[in-house]
Amino acid sequence: LSCAATGVPSPHIEWLKNNNEFSLMYKTIYKRNHKNQKHGDRLLTVSSLHIPKMKDLGADLPGNWSCRASNGYHPDASYSIDVKVTVRKSWWIWVANGVFICAAIMTGLYIRQIYKKKKVMRKLEEILNELINNILRGDTERISKAKSLLKTLRGAAGNGPHAHAASDGTDEDFIGREVIPAIPFPPAMLLEPTNLSG
After folding, report:
1. Domain final residue, candidates 28, 63, 85
2. What CATH number is given to the structural domain containing 58?
3. Residue pLDDT, tens place only, 1-55
4. Where is the Ig-like domain (predicted)?
């Protein structure tokens, strides 16, 4: 919010909310933004209120904010402009943080699932190659072991939420772990930011 006034001598501008003066803490904000600017042959006094900063300080924003300009030259040389400020209550920031966390979790699960499936497929390829070599060598004991591992890994490569992966002990990451299915992230949860209206 900005208020500009001109006069001789230069007027002083003050802000009130619901006809009450601000506390000292809030005054420091608009006093920093109390400037004199040249406008043609006139000198304008401009005062601004930064609503987000006021909000950060915990100011009660909804209500009638008054800009009062006076140079003390005459008792009637004081003019006020009332500005109605309304703030819609919004939990957008809280929801946005929640959505971000959810998105991060879902993304992490999805990446983990792909990573695990790739490892399972690599393991399947290794065992198949070993199985072919054992068949060629006629090693029945190793063929039986390879078939057992293939059966286990086929279940782990599935899409079920409780598909367990196992190995022959050479890959500890697979033992007793679950392949967690990815949960789609609904775009409807993304909310638009709420702007102040005034």
Report:
1. 85
2. 2.60.40
3. 777 787 777 777 777 777 777 655 555 555 556 677 776 777 788 877 777 777 6
4. 1-86
What secondary structure does DSSP assign to the chain, as a single string? -EEEEE-SSPPEEEEEETTEEPPHHHHHHHHHTEEEEEETTEEEEEEE--HHHHHHTT---SEEEEEEEE-SSSTT-EEEEEEEEB-----HHHHHHHHHHHHHHHHHHHHHHHHHHHHHHHHHHHHHHHHHHHHHHT-HHHHHHHHHHHHHHHHHTS--TT-EE--SSS-GGGTTEE-PPPPP--GGG--PPPPPB-
> Does residue 180 share a domain with residue 99?
yes
User: pLDDT tens digits, residue range 87-146?
Assistant: 555 444 334 444 444 444 444 444 445 455 566 666 666 766 676 666 666 667 766 776
Structural domain contains residue 154: yes
Sort 42 into a burial class: Cβ within 10 Å, 0-12 / 13-18 / 19+: exposed
Same domain flag for 102 and 80: no
pTM: 0.36
